[in-house]
Structure formats: structure tokens, C-alpha cells
Amino acid sequence: MESIDIHCSALCTAKNRHLSLPTSTDVSTPFRFVIIADPQLGLLEQYVEKRPRPHHWDREVKLVSRAVSIINRLCPKPAFVIICGDLVNDYPGGSDRCKQTSDLLEILSHLNSDIPLIVLPGNHDLGNRPDVNDVQDYISMWGDDYFSFIFNRTRFIVLNTQYLVNDSKCQSSSSEFRQWFNEQLSIKNENFDMSVVFQVNIHITSK
Predict the structure, then answer these.
(1) Which of 29, 38, 96, 141 could form an SS bridge with 86, CB 3.0 to 4.6 Å?
(2) DSSP secondary-structure letter at 190?
(3) In terms of pTM, does the model score above 0.90?
(4) 108-163, pLDDT tens digit by residue?
(5) Which ranges carry the Calcineurin-like phosphoesterase domain (predicted)?
(6) Alpha-carbon distance 1 to 92, whole Å?
């Protein structure tokens, strides 16, 4: 995808499967955060109204802009915001993908810079059968596609569930992800609660 020159100061990107966030001075302090899913600029005309191309996404822009405005006014402010995938509607290689991404970043750039923004991928961000190039394209724009972070006394595990949906074209990456996920689940620390963040529902069988 083409380079997009829009700076979103709130956006936090993970590297080496880890994201660092500032925590409270007193880590036992209760906190709240905001979950958003599927801003998916371009969704309404394609999937709800089933219009042919070209698609427009002015209504989605207004909805996401309204969400950002509401979040900025929350008091006390949230510890962070997580967008659970489907950031844009057009799949990798789609003609509208770059413009949708640019428009989304422009909206998100208005989120207060002291409210960390965290994103994770959905099927529209990687494709229904992602390959290595699709994953790298996402990482170059948004940072690692799966990672963990700690806030106060909670450890969050953020997943790329597309590896669990269809990994037929990215089996090596999927294998690395599954190993990492199992390692994360096996970490025992009574000082931390654990939360798992994802887009597609997953089913885990314990042995």
C-alpha cells in the first residue's frame, strides 16, 4: 500500500510482540478503557445497501468522528482505546484501501494525544486468507499484528485471529503465533489479571 503521511499522536504501535504503556502511580487503582470495533470505512454502501462501486464512506467518517469526540470528553479519561479490527472495509489490494486508511487516520488524529490508541487486525485488514505480504503490509502501517501489554495489574493479550480462521497461505507465521499464544497463556503470575483481546470469537480447549 502507498505511504500515508498522516501523524496520529495517540496511536501506539507494538514491536517485538510487546507494547509499552504508562501505568498509574498506584497500580491497584481501578481504571477503565474504551473498546471500538469495525469502523470499517466503506461498510454501509457495500454490505448494508449493496451498492456497486464506487463506494463512499462519509457516514462512517461522521460516526467515527463522533466516537472520537465522545471519548475526548470522557471524565475521568479512559486509560486507553482499543479498536478491535476491520479498520477499513477494502481488502488488501483494493482500490479504496489507501484512501480509507488515510481518512481513518485523519479522524483518529483528533483523539487526545494523552489517550493511547491500540489497534488489532480483522479480516478486512488482512484478508480472509492472508498471506505473508498481507501481514507485512498491515505491520508496516499499524505495528505488530499480535502482542501483549500490561496496564496496572492487568496483562492484556492482543490477538490476530485470522491465523485461527484460515492460515492456508501463512502457515509459518500462524505456527509462530500459536506458539507465542500458548506461551502467553502459560505465564503464571498471581499479581496480574489476564484479559484477551481479539476480533473473531475463538474456542480454546484445555487439556
Answers:
(1) 38
(2) T
(3) yes
(4) 999 999 999 999 999 999 999 999 999 999 999 999 999 999 999 999 999 999 99
(5) 31-158
(6) 8
Measured from the Cβ of residue 15, the count of other Cβ atoms closer than 10 Å reads 11
Condensed to tens digits (0 to 9), the pLDDT of residues 34-58 reads: 999 999 999 999 999 999 999 999 9
What single letter denotes the amino acid at residue 60? Answer: E
Q: What is the length of the chain?
A: 207
Give the residue carrying C-alpha cell 478503557. 33
The C-alpha atoms of residue 127 and residue 174 are separated, in whole angstroms, by: 14
Domains of the chain with bracketed CATH = 33-198 (3.60.21.10)
Q: Look at residue 118 and give its three-state secondary structure.
A: strand
- For the sheet with 81-84, list strands across it: 34-36, 81-84, 117-120
Adjacent-strand bridge partners of 119: 83
Phi-psi sector, 152: left (phi>0), alpha (psi -120 to 50), beta: left
Q: Tell which residue, 121, 39, 35, has the closest CA to residue 80.
A: 35
The number of helices, as runs of H, and strands, as runs of E, in the chain is 7, 6
